[in-house]
Please model this.
Amino acid sequence: MTRPPIASLKTSILLLLAASVLSAAGIFWSNQQDTEARADLQLQQTALNAAHARQQQGQTEARLIAQHLDAYHALVARGFVGEENRLAWIEAVHLANQDARLYGLTYTLSPRTAAPATLADDLPLKQTRMVVKMPVLVETDLPRFLDALRARAPGLFRVSRCRLARLTDAPPQPVNRPELDAECELLWFTVVADTGTMQ
Model:
């Protein structure tokens, strides 16, 4: 039996081993590159999905703003959104007193404070307390005054409380002279405008 010529095959075997090692290294490198590419693709897909979600949210918010912009501007014009319009409130109570044909009034205004959280519902809602005192002839003068004020109100207010008291203990006289004193506490509401939105 003759022995194969190993010396002449040695080069071929070495080349075959080198090719096998290079092939294994290439396969390993390719798998590693594929894994990294898949991870990168997944990150890019996540970023793309997040961008799509932000875009949809932005479009929804833009639609809501466009849908409610006229109502917002109406609230601004009415004096509910923005700074207090104390002068307009004072003028409104005086004109309501005249409309109801009453006998004048006095008022006090307190500084603006935060409205109770139960009313605010996460809005920057503020309230300003106004106490109005006026003489009235009969009890029905007070609701007449409040109705006239609601018709003239340059903003949103709520009657917190009212009270009637006799000016004297004397019996009523048959003349048109006020013998009752009315006092009402009004709360004027405003929302602090966010200058960065809805311009």
